[in-house]
Specification:
single chain, alpha/beta, elongated
Length: 750
């Protein structure tokens, strides 16, 4: 029987909600609000730009080290407040550009431009904006992100409706004359501010100016970053409806501002994209982004004082209104005719919109998105010159780092989503092909003459490895490798300077996500298999009419998308063969590291021209030339002298020691390519043995042929399968597919 004492209780929930409401100070009288403003003016006198910049700073940032250079990443795009859901992979350069523009608005105290994100379809433009909006929603619920607007409260009067709020029953809950805390059953009308106006606007402009000046004189507005008080706070005014109510009240109260403020209920509100509160998106429809409507004669308006009832109350509606004090996003901005958004020319510059009956004063950040095709067409439009000065163009290319591209699919293509096992490398192979389709031939301008031929020889796959891991092809000499690594950030930056920049063409993440989902439904495989991914890429390559990037002209091996598929297959086979060899347990990885460690010991004495102690005899001896030659026959690139190679290895260790003086060098990590070559040489000499083990593996998983295996073979295969599962994430189906492909492709000559 269930113990009812341990079950959740409704009282616990209602109590928690009540406590949270009170701790958030969700309802205040104007006097209470005024005291908060005077104590913390920097927090409560912010414009939209200053608020959004503070939100960026609230979540913080950290530096990301990549071969292409160090870059700052803002934590809000990690979406930790949503448990990582909606995280934006990469695009740090774009993040920093958005932050730069918003910071400029904050320092100037004025938003006078629209941020326009432009790039190919599916390059994460909307994802970036959506992440900012979600972060703002979270920030607005924190103490540091408190936002306030106000409502007009008119209590039930004792002497007739014409006297409501003027000499009526001024009940309150411990707050003197304020109606802010009245119970709903004694309120006849509660009129919210349609624009979420800043409550400071209730103080007449002349007195407000003196207040702000006084706060500045006391140093309460000092800002280390040179931030100024925004024009919105200094010169902004109430919306038309609130101004009409305020003027009627101040007239009826004979200019007594205290009596007017009795009717003000300051309320904390929270940004919400779903409910279009401070965050709104304009889709590319043919519609006006703001309009006005007259308030209907409902119970609330009928309960207003006669002086207000006789005034025609209008309120604006639409995305511009909903987004005030936040962000307004224009999705696919340039898909609408230019005439549909010409009003933005004056709106962005002056923060006003001329309506039929009044001028709308707004304070928000405008962010639009468009693809390169529409932007290029817009540049030819006669009105582009007018718009150009009011736009901050920020380029959003496709990702060019393999690791970042994999992040996109790893978070959305999961076993729960596809309903089956995902084979190792299935997602990676799709990402690898996608990134290769986006890369351009090298810009040779920053390359010295001595390196030009070496750079020209680099394939798209090798360029990808440079960007992603700083990995230099093994055929390069030590000097060339060092110089090439130095050039990586230069190449990465230079490739973005052209009109046809790197990352503008290629397969989009949306297309690759669809490709992976299709591969998961392939009837020929029991899992999402790399082989199914390869077949889906084949289908895509046959559809040039649908995928424009497939028609790009091949240049020095770049944009040769069918050749990329062959390269991806080769990469997959090499990786899987390594994993299968490792799982066989013929030689542990530690043995290669130990072998290279002994080599380092010998060449370090050779470089110093010193003798070393023999561990067995205890006698001094010369470094072992035979050991050094054995290693160098495998590792030293053609054309490089062994002596140069030895000195380069010691120099690399020395440089590492200078950077990390308290750490013992990890040779397997520091010299990973060399360890890999030693490992490959070991297995290359045992091809026949490897083939037989793989064939035995297929017999074992086939079950019907399992009885043909010797007991020792069965035990070996069991160990191999266990290691494949534990070390690399295979199951029986994905391991069988991998072994079959490796046998068919790499051991056909046996």
């Amino acid at each position: 029987m269930t113990d009812s004492t341990n079950l959740p209780k409704l009282d616990d929930i209602t109590g928690a909600v009540r406590d949270h409401f009170q701790s958030d100070r969700s309802i205040l009288s104007f006097e209470e609000y005024f005291e908060i403003v005077v104590r913390e003016p920097k927090s409560h006198l912010r414009s939209s730009a200053q608020y959004i910049k503070d939100m960026f700073d609230y979540f913080g940032s950290y530096d990301v080290q990549r071969p292409t250079g160090a870059v700052r990443r803002f934590r809000l795009f990690d979406a930790e407040y949503e448990n990582g859901q909606g995280r934006v992979a990469g695009q740090e350069e774009v993040q920093n550009e958005i932050y730069r523009v918003v910071s400029n608005f904050a320092r100037e105290g004025l938003v006078n431009k629209m941020i326009l994100l432009h790039g190919p379809n599916g390059s994460a433009k909307s994802s970036l904006v959506r992440c900012i909006m979600h972060a703002l929603e979270h920030y607005s619920r924190q103490p540091e992100g408190a936002l306030y607007s106000f409502n007009w409260i008119f209590p039930r009067g004792k002497t007739g409706r014409d006297r409501i709020g003027f000499g009526g029953d001024k009940q309150s809950r411990g707050d003197g004359e304020s109606f802010a805390y009245l119970d709903p059953d004694v309120i006849d009308a509660r009129i919210p501010c349609d624009l979420f106006d800043h409550p400071i606007f209730l103080i007449p402009r002349e007195q407000r100016a003196k207040l702000l000046e006084n706060l500045a004189d006391k140093g309460l507005w000092a800002d280390d970053e040179g931030r100024v008080l925004s024009s919105y706070i200094k010169d902004g005014d109430l919306s038309y409806k609130s101004r009409s109510i305020f003027d009627a009240l101040i007239g009826s109260c004979d200019g007594d501002l205290d009596r007017v403020m009795q009717h003000v209920q300051v309320e904390r509100y929270f940004l919400s994209r779903r409910y279009r509160r401070g965050l709104a998106t304009v889709e590319p429809q043919m519609a006006v982004d703001a309009k006005i409507q007259q308030l209907s004669a409902d119970r609330s308006t009928a309960s207003l004082p006669a002086t207000i009832q006789h005034s025609a109350l209008y309120q604006p509606v639409g995305p511009l209104v909903d987004a005030n004090r936040g962000i307004l996003e224009f999705a696919d901005f340039l898909k609408r005719p230019v005439e549909a958004f010409k009003y933005l020319l004056s709106t962005v510059e002056t923060s006003t919109v001329t309506m039929d009956s009044f001028v709308l004063h707004i304070d928000l950040i405008y962010i639009g998105s468009t693809n390169e095709t529409y932007l290029e067409a817009f540049k030819q439009h006669p009105d582009f010159a007018s718009f150009k000065g009011r736009l901050e163009l920020i380029r959003v290319p496709y990702l060019r780092h393999l690791g970042l591209e994999k992040e996109i699919y790893a978070s959305t293509i999961t076993e729960r989503v596809v309903g089956k096992h995902i084979a190792p490398h299935a997602i990676e192979m799709a990402a690898l092909w996608a990134v290769m389709t986006r890369l351009k031939a090298f810009d040779m301008e920053p390359v010295e003459t001595s390196m030009k031929e070496a750079v020209k020889s680099l394939s798209p796959y090798e360029k990808l490895k440079l960007y992603d891991q700083g990995q230099v092809p093994e055929r390069f000499s030590t000097r060339e490798a060092k110089e090439l690594r130095h050039l990586i950030p230069i190449f990465y930056e230079a490739s973005m300077q052209d009109r046809d920049y790197e990352g503008m063409l290629g397969a989009s993440a949306r297309e690759i996500r669809t490709l992976l989902l299709n591969a998961a439904n392939h009837t020929g495989f029991n899992c999402l298999s790399p082989q199914a991914v390869f077949e889906e890429i084949e289908h895509l390559l046959d559809n040039k009419a649908f995928y424009a990037f497939l028609n790009a002209e091949v240049e020095n091996g770049f944009f040769d998308h069918r050749a990329f598929l062959n390269e991806v297959r080769s990469s997959y086979l090499a990786t899987v063969n390594d994993e299968l060899c490792d799982a066989m347990g013929l030689a542990p990885d530690e043995s290669y590291g130990e072998l290279f460690g002994r080599y380092v010991t010998h060449i370090s004495h050779w470089v110093k021209n010193s003798r070393m102690m023999d561990e067995q005899t205890g006698l001094l001896k010369d470094p072992d030339q035979g050991l050094m030659k054995e290693i160098e026959d495998t590792l030293v690139p053609e054309g490089e002298k062994p002596e140069e190679f030895r000195r380069a290895v010691i120099a690399t260790i020395g440089a590492r020691a200078l950077e990390h003086p308290d750490e013992t060098p990890d040779y397997p990590e520091l010299f990973r390519p060399y360890i890999r070559k030693l490992r490959a040489a070991f297995y290359d000499a045992r091809r026949d043995e490897l083939r037989k083990i793989n064939e035995a593996f297929l017999k074992y998983v086939d079950k019907e042929d399992r009885q043909t295996l010797e007991a020792s073979e069965v035990e070996q295969i069991k160990g191999m399968l266990k290691r494949l599962e534990q070390r690399y994430g295979y199951n029986v189906d994905s391991a069988r597919d991998a072994v079959a492909m490796v046998l068919k492709s790499l051991y056909v000559d046996e």
